[in-house]
Design goal:
By secondary structure, the chain is an all-alpha fold. Helices cover 88% and strands 0% of the residues. It is built from 2 helices and no strands. It is rod-shaped, with a radius of gyration of 14 Å.
């Protein structure tokens, strides 16, 4: 997954969490938070992969 897709997942998760709060849907809020965390993990993994590639290893 690319860093852009990971960032998009974070944004989508934030939107879902905010919508869940607006309609008082705890399940949607939790799902949104989960998507944000997954996006952050994927973004971090991409950054680490880039660092390894740049170091020539």
């Amino acid at each position: 997954m690319s860093k852009a897709k990971a960032k998009a997942k974070q944004v989508k998760g934030k939107l879902k969490e905010t919508t869940g709060k607006a309609v008082d849907d705890k399940s949607m809020q939790a799902e949104g938070r989960s998507e944000q965390i997954l996006g952050k993990v994927q973004e971090t993994a991409e950054k680490a992969s880039d660092r390894v590639k740049k170091s020539g290893r």
